[in-house]
Every structure is written in structure tokens, then in C-alpha cells.
Amino acid sequence: MTSDSDDALNWDGDEASTPKDRALPHGWNAVGKGSDDVGTIEDDGTVTSAPVDEPAGLSTPMLLLVGVVGGVYLLYTIGWIVGGLRLQPLASFLVSDVMFLPWFFLAIAAPALWFLASWVLTRGRAAWLRVAVLLAGVVLLVPWPFVTVGVIGS
Description:
mainly alpha; three-stranded mixed sheet; rod-shaped; single chain
């Protein structure tokens, strides 16, 4: 049995929540910095932790747009390969292969690099900004050697 002086220092339910649990009684709301980490004390004395927000996935239209634009960038990569190989004999007449090949490989990698850069640099921004950057790449990265010369050439 405890003495009367020990009873004065304890309340019913003190053992239910440890000091490391950040919790407020039911009906109270935490406000300010770190308020998302504060749980609530239920009527039975248990502490429920604050809900953990999972990152939201892409919406269906955004997922479709990213897939279509990714497919266009893949076709652009193939277009740069075919068009660049068709352009190489003419380019070797004007410049040496040492000058042509690095730019040829950079042109092949440009669509993938643009897609990756736009994906990483627009993370956490508005969706319209990501769409604008992806569509700007569709306009800027057109494989002009393939468009003008084509597969057969003239």
C-alpha cells in the first residue's frame, strides 16, 4: 500500500502515456510547427498517433500524359539515331568524326535527359508546370535530320 504523500503525486491514468508520447486529450487540437506529430489520448487512456500522410500518386490524366510524352520521347530517340546515321556521311565530309560523334550521342540522349530533368526539377511544383516543361521538350527536341531527310533520303 502506498502512503498518502505518494497518492498526492499520482493521478489515475498517469501510467498510460509515457513522457515521450506527444498527445493531447480528446477534443484538443495542436496548432503550429510540429502539430502533425501530436496524437490524441483516447477515453480509455491509450495514445493514438497522428496519421502519417503518404505521398499522393499521380492522377489518371497526368499518368496518361506522362506515358504519352514518354512514348514520344522514345520515338524521338529512335528518330535521332536513324536521322543521325543518315546524316553521318554528309557530316563526315564537313567535319571529322571526332567532332560529330559526341554531338550525335548527346542528341540521342537528349530526350531521355530532358524527361529526367523535367521530372526531377518539377517535383513538388504545380502540375501545370510539369506539363509545360514536358510539352516544351516535345517541341524543342524534334529530330530534324529524320524529319527533313527521312529514312530513304533524296
